[in-house]
Design brief:
The complex is a heterotrimer of chains A (378), B (279) and C (197). Chain A has 378 residues and is α/β, with parallel strands linked by helices. Chain A folds into two domains: 185 residues, Rossmann fold (3-Layer(aba) Sandwich); 109 residues, Rossmann fold, CATH 3.40.50. In chain A, the strands form three sheets. In chain A, strands 2, 3, 4, 5, 6, 7, 8 and 14 form an eight-stranded mixed beta sheet that branches. Chain A has a five-stranded mixed beta sheet with strand order 11-13-12-15-16, with helices on both faces. In chain A, helix 1 packs parallel to helix 6. In chain A, 60% of the residues are buried. The mean pLDDT of chain A is 97. Chain B is globular. In chain B, helix 5 crosses helix 6 and helix 6 crosses helix 7. An eight-stranded mixed beta sheet of chain B has the order 2-1-3-4-8-7-10-9, sandwiched between helices. Chain B starts with a helix and ends in a 5-residue tail after the last helix. In chain B, strand 5 and strand 6 form a beta hairpin. Chain B has one domain: Rossmann fold (3-Layer(aba) Sandwich). Chain C has a single domain, classed as Pyruvate-ferredoxin oxidoreductase, PFOR, domain III (Pyruvate-ferredoxin Oxidoreductase, domain 3). Chain C has six helices and seven strands, in the order E-H-E-E-E-H-E-E-H-H-H-H-E. Chain C has a seven-stranded mixed beta sheet with strand order 2-3-1-4-5-6-7, sandwiched between helices. In chain C, a hairpin with a 7-residue loop joins strand 2 and strand 3. In chain C, helix 3 packs across helix 4 and helix 5 runs antiparallel to helix 6. Classes of the chains: A alpha/beta (378), B alpha/beta (279), C alpha/beta (197). Chains in contact: A-B, A-C.
Chain lengths: 378, 279, 197
């Protein structure tokens, strides 16, 4: 199939990205504003021989996804805030048992049932810390329909490569907006598959350490019989309470991500080379910020934009570099300040961090950002 | 070699994790024995069997056997198993749960798995109590009984597992006790073999928690109760209701042929592909 | 800064505004090669609530995805007209369904009774939205008729193509005429009556 240009919603582009990345299993529960993902999956997956199942709730959806992944399929689910809360339990299981899977959260206003049809960026911290216990996680975001496609591909690739759940945080604006997107020929999409054992079953140690920290993963039913559990386990997968086995396991769980920050981090810069005020933004707000930078430049303000595409692990190197040069780091967010906390942590007094927070269910406008820039620069 | 030694050597993981965590007198070991005998009798290869569990005493069962094994989160075992089965329908996916696991926290998944009729075998070990956490009442603790969270007495009413499974649409429903081990072997085999969602409810003693709190005697006493208070499905049909009062009916409660999820889904795939529907 | 043309299509849920927003976006984006972002907002109800669909069209990359000042507002009822007329920028224009609007608190307005025309001339009220789409296409000048036609045929149910094309054509002609008159005469409003057809 040759490449084709389509007008799609962000949610629809997620589905096409997932299929291009090799996703062949989707389990989900309908929830606004993510439902179009489930609807398009129900239509598209059978066409490519994949499986769509609508489960009884989000608890079951993520559980079925993990089961499917253990059986060897690339699998995902999608939801919004209330459902994302319910999924936290088994996102932790996927971290602990190192089962690749992708979870898309199309953010709406919260807390609780909140604002079902209106955008928000309130789940940034939940995506990082939502499940209990200390754990590493990868969280991506997107601000346009083409990015929805490519960040979904990237979510699958990182998930498979590092055997970890990857969360793609969208927002209602990005999930529902329609834009042109070029759907590439599938052979032009770089697809990463989970490492598989190359040794015979009797030599296979399912959770053994490796140079990358990622052990090869055998699908169920192919001769490699082993145990998978949400309990802390030894290298064979059996529950352990021996400190000399717990420590190295937890250390490896973190190391496989932390040793690869440069590959996981992704951001884009616009007009930052001489910027006195750098806007740090993600998702739909990054688009307001880009226009704000252009408007500010027209008014003679040296403004720039750092757009975050990887939210977690936090893009420390770029923020540190920009904080060295800029007078002001401005962080507009549709929450009361979540990524801005990270910016402040990394900034360490180098620059001045100014926040712009909006939680009324409407998108931050370019004008509001420019106004804040002028105010911050005095 | 004795048959039991042969089965132990063939199916148990001896490299680690013994002795097991179950208390003396627990029925879980008997259920595990039945499961192994059923698998052996059916001639299934260990590679084609997946044993999935939730949380609780029964949750530890998979760790002991040399199948593809998965110990999931509390209540969610059936949902994990659904994902595995749909991706690899050739595998025999067996799910073992306790009464609290399957009926309280996992109750919603249980009724929907039965309704959906995915080809899974679910074994629910019913000991009327949360054993691992120390004897709290569960959805199957009978009215009036004691538990650590019902120190005066239980004022809630018991959920009947097999009857619920039948109503929710399971293709096969059987009930046994760990005393009636031949029947249990047979029911587990039939639940695995049955196309569709098969349920086996196993009444199992927990002398350490339920028995102690309710002064029911030791494990032998509790199993004698099982012997003396059960009645087969066939016999129960011939008796008037008043004679069934206080008795436990065991045997095959439901067996019916229903379209299974995987086969229905295959038809959807054919239709979607046949329609040549473009993007 | 990129040059933008911004449109809001508004009315009741169920009037087909989201659909014509998508059709217009496909026509300008896929068949005219322009950049386009279509967004929408809606209440919790599937029918009967307020509904709006918005387009930003440009020759360059579009940053901010929502309108900043409307070049064109389509109001399919009085409530939407009242609510949104203030978002129309200077020099912008309103296209209103005069079947449901009788007060026009705006400076430049094209009044066309889409719903009544659809009912009386085409026998089906349901195509009022496609007629409005034709008028919006012609008044805005951002899209050619052929592109619109192609996009409509791509989206409407099989068996309804002729009816929808008739509606589109009728709307386009009225829109073109209105635009011509507005420019020629420097008038501030143009009222289409059924008799003009």
């Amino acid at each position: 199939m040759a490449k084709v240009e389509k007008l799609l919603q962000g949610n629809e582009a997620v589905v096409e990205g997932a299929i291009a990345a090799g996703c062949r299993f989707y389990a989900g529960y309908p929830i606004t504003p993510s439902t179009e993902i489930a609807e398009r999956m129900a239509w598209r997956l059978p066409q490519v021989g994949g499986i769509f199942i609508q489960m009884e709730d989000e608890l079951a959806s993520i559980a079925a996804v993990i089961g499917a992944s253990l059986a060897g399929a690339k699998a995902m689910t999608a939801t919004s805030g209330p459902g994302f809360s319910l999924m936290q339990e088994n996102i932790g299981f996927a971290c602990e048992a190192e089962v690749p899977c992708v979870v898309v959260d199309v953010m709406r206003g919260g807390p609780s049932t909140g604002l079902p049809t209106m955008p928000s960026q309130g789940d940034v911290m939940q995506a990082r810390w939502g499940t209990h216990g200390d754990h590493p996680v990868i969280v991506l975001s997107a601000s346009s329909v083409p990015e929805c496609f490519w960040m979904t591909v990237r979510a699958f690739n990182l998930s498979e490569k590092y055997r970890t759940p990857v969360i793609l945080l969208l927002d209602e604006v990005v999930g529902h907006m329609r834009e042109k997107v070029v759907l590439p020929d599938p052979k032009d999409v770089e697809v990463v598959d989970r490492p598989r054992p190359t040794m015979p079953p009797e030599w296979y140690i399912p959770y053994a350490d490796t140079p990358s920290g990622v052990p090869p993963m055998a699908p169920f039913g192919e001769g490699y019989r082993y145990h998978v559990t949400g309990l802390i386990h030894d290298v064979r997968g059996f529950p352990t309470s021996r400190p000399d086995e717990i420590g190295p396991f937890m250390e490896r769980l973190f190391r496989k991500i932390s040793a690869n920050f440069p590959e996981i981090h992704l951001s884009e810069e616009f007009e930052t080379s001489d910027a006195e005020v750098v806007v740090i933004a993600y998702g739909c707000v990054a688009r307001s910020a880009k226009r704000a930078v252009k408007e500010a430049r027209e008014r003679g303000i040296k403004a720039g934009l750092l757009k975050l595409l990887t939210l977690w692990p936090f893009e420390r190197p770029a923020v540190e570099r920009l904080a060295e040069k800029a007078k002001v780091l401005l962080v507009p967010e549709m929450n009361m300040g979540q990524i801005s906390r990270e910016v402040k942590r990394v900034n360490q007094g180098r620059s001045r961090v100014v926040t712009l927070n909006k939680v009324d269910g409407t998108l931050i406008t370019p004008g509001e950002i420019v106004e804040k820039m002028e105010e911050a620069l005095g | 070699m004795r048959e039991i030694t042969r089965l132990i050597h063939k199916y148990l993981r001896h490299d680690k994790k013994f002795p097991h965590i179950w208390c003396p007198g627990c029925g879980n070991g008997i259920v595990l024995g039945s499961l192994i005998r059923a698998v052996d009798k059916m001639g299934l290869s260990k590679d084609e069997v997946v044993l999935v569990s939730g949380i609780g005493c029964s949750g530890r069962m998979p760790v002991y056997v040399d199948f593809n094994t998965l110990h999931t989160t509390h209540g969610r075992a059936l949902a994990f198993a659904t994902g595995i089965k749909l991706v690899k329908p050739q595998l025999k996916v067996i799910v073992v749960m306790g009464d609290g696991d399957a009926l309280a926290i996992g109750g919603n998944h249980f009724i929907h798995a039965a309704r959906r009729n995915v080809d899974l075998a679910a074994i629910i070990i019913n000991n009327h109590i949360y054993g691992m956490t120390g004897g709290q009442f569960s959805p199957t603790t009978p009215y009036g009984m004691r538990a650590t969270t019902a120190p005066y007495r239980n004022i809630e009413h018991e959920l009947k597992i097999a009857e619920l499974a039948a109503t929710a649409g399971a293709a096969f429903v059987g009930r046994s006790t760990v005393y009636h081990v031949k029947l249990l072997d047979n029911l587990i085999e039939r639940a695995i073999e049955k196309k569709g969602f098969g349920v086996v409810e196993v009444m199992s003693p927990c002398p350490v928690q339920y028995g102690r709190l309710n002064r029911l005697g030791d494990a032998v006493k509790m199993m004698e109760w099982q012997r003396d208070n059960t009645i087969s499905v066939e016999k129960a049909k011939e008796l008037p209701p008043e004679e069934l009062e206080g008795k436990l009916v065991i045997g095959v409660l439901v067996e019916r042929d229903l379209p299974i999820y995987q086969e229905e889904y295959e038809k959807i795939v054919e239709r979607a592909r046949g329609s040549g529907a473009a993007l | 800064m990129e040059r933008r043309y911004e449109i809001r299509l508004s009315g009741y849920g169920g009037q087909g505004l989201i659909l014509i927003g998508i059709i217009l976006a496909e026509a300008v984006g896929l068949y005219e090669g322009k950049q386009v972002v279509q967004t929408q907002s809606y209440g919790p109800e599937a029918r009967g609530g307020a509904s709006r669909s918005e387009l930003v069209v440009s020759d360059q990359e579009i940053d901010y995805p929502k309108p900043l000042g409307l070049d064109l507002l389509l109001a399919m009822n009085q409530q939407s007209l009242n609510l949104y007329c203030g978002d129309v920028k200077e020099g912008g224009i309103v296209v209103a369904d005069s079947t449901f609007c009788d007060q026009f608190p705006v400076s430049r307005v094209v009044k066309i009774p889409f719903t009544r025309l659809a009912r009386e001339q085409l026998g089906r009220e349901i195509v009022a939205n496609i007629m409005a789409l034709g008028a919006v296409g012609a008044v805005s000048g951002i899209v050619g008729f052929e592109s619109l036609k192609k996009a409509v045929l791509n989206r409407v149910p099989k068996g309804t193509e002729d009816l929808n094309l008739k509606a589109l054509q009728m709307g386009w002609k009225l829109g073109e005429k209105a635009k011509r008159e507005l420019v020629k005469e420097g008038r501030e409003e143009y009222i289409i009556s059924a008799e003009e057809l």
